[in-house]
Amino acid sequence: MALLLCSISACTSSKPQVVAKKRLNYYSEIYNLSDLKTKDLMGLDVDLTEKDQPYTGVVKVILAGQSLGKGMYSPNEASWLLDDLANDEYLARVVRILPFLRNFACAAYGKEMALLGGGSYGRIDRITESPTAKTYLYNLIRSELLPGPSLHQARREHRMINVDANRVLILGGITTGNAAALDVELFDASSGTIKTVGKMALFRREFLLTRLPSGKILVSGGIGNQTNEAPGDLVSTVEVFDPVKEKYFVAGQLHEARVGHSAIVLPAGAIFLGGRVPDEGGQQIDSNTVEAVLNQ
Length: 296
Known about the structure:
Helices cover about 5% and strands about 40% of the residues.
């Protein structure tokens, strides 16, 4: 790898002094928010930590005075797709009539398809709901909805992300009986099947999925359940899905657990920024740090 940031003890910038944690596949360093500078391709400053920042696209990244080159900032991919689907008149009619597609996760794949699945199963006028294993394939152009293969674990509060043009990764959330949904599942559009490709090391929801240029998916942050990793059950473990080997594994650990964060994607990893971190009492406060997580 061409780039490794200096260690905390070797850097002279005003970064928080944090005891180093064990690293596995990814090398992690924490910095003060003021150490991060980003510019658009015209050279104009862009504050990506500003609330509701509308910028998306390529940025030039400088961290603690060191240029990291170009990175991609696109934090709202999943929410944009959900917003588009919520405004789809056909889907809106379906949701009102049928007891599925409630609080589902989704990911686009190919040129015009999306996988929708999981979420709450139950009619809108009923209190009792349960996680569902149902999935549906939706043609975004023609507004056609077809049944898809069932998930191996019914789940809600989960996440999906497209791995490539034919595959979607499905993970996280809560399954039947309010238990942790730890199975990591992979949808393959070419075969129309879903298979289990691993298990998460720990339960998490409200986490971030970041697709690297290598195709690997970084899984970071979120809220766990009695994880003892950080106050307030926030999660610091970083996990990775390797789409070539179709393997899922623990890759390292953040210095500072966070939730509601976003990422700048770099060729060698990502910089996590924004979101909330725990204070000593376990309450969530706005983050004033950024963390670089780079492949060694």
